[in-house]
Task: structure prediction
Amino acid sequence: MDRVKGKVCVVTGAARGLGLAAAEALLAQGGKVLLTDVDAKTGAAEAKRLGANARFCVQDVTDVAQWSQVLDLAVSEFGRLDVLVNNAGIAHILDVETVTLAQWQKLLDINLTGVFLGTQAAIARMKAQGGAIVNIASIEGLLGDGGLPAYNAAKGGVRIFTRSAAIHVARSGYKIRINNVCPGFADTQMVSGALATLQPEIAQQFAEKTLARIPMGRFASPSEIAAAVLFLASDESSYVTGSDLVVDGGMTA
Ligand SMILES: NC(=O)c1ccc[n+]([C@@H]2O[C@H](COP(=O)([O-])OP(=O)(O)OC[C@H]3O[C@@H](n4cnc5c(N)ncnc54)[C@H](O)[C@@H]3O)[C@@H](O)[C@H]2O)c1
Result:
């Protein structure tokens, strides 16, 4: 029950899905968690449900000024900052011939630039005392998918950005570790929402084909991805930095 006891954690995109599951896992193991999200209503309700060690604040991860406010709030509420989970993200199924510049840029802003902004702001606050940053990349940053060019580019970018930042902080002598979790398909609104934009029969074919590619034969539950986040946030991973922890039921094996 105390794998991250007393650690002060910020989790972005935590109103639902994998971010909420990560917040729950960190709280269950003794952490104090500031959940953030653009969805104020759901985020506030979830933080209230999670109890005294949880707080919520509205944050758009693409807004540089909000990053300072959020991390300062974590310090003022809980006294320090130990863990940042850069989880917020969006997805759309639009191939390279179809995706517009505006759609491309919006996805890259949230899924890649948001991770950069959070990592930079967290390093500034963690470098004196140490900490752990966990970036939620994807197996879609390891492999290409014809329908996901912007998402592939962003997640591939997160993976290699994490390595660059991890090398820099370690070589600088800061006690900060930075790692990626690369989930496979998990049962969340992101997946169901993206499938809902397709014709029903195409969505069904996609779901069947995807399941057939997963040796374990099922999607992940959010708590199975959160278990990897917990490991990388905790001191159990004290010698792990610049790595990808793939959690995909064997899909990329
Ligand atoms: N579900 C999967 O199969 C899967 C697989 C691999 C990686 N991921 C990644 O995991 C992360 C979480 O995905 P999920 O499945 O829980 O998605 P989700 O859509 O269920 O939840 C994403 C959350 O991010 C929030 N959000 C969106 N834009 C934001 C912004 N600009 N600032 C702050 N918050 C914002 C949303 O309001 C939402 O609460 C994402 O980075 C996603 O790319 C998901």
Residues 101-126 form the longest helix (26 residues). The pocket of nicotinamide-adenine-dinucleotide is lined by residues 12-13, 15-19, 37-39, 59-62, 87-91, 110, 136, 138, 183, 185-186, 188-191 (CB under 6 Å). The beta strands are 8-11, 32-37, 54-58, 83-86, 131-136, 176-183, 244-247. The CA atoms of residues 119 and 144 lie 25 Å apart.
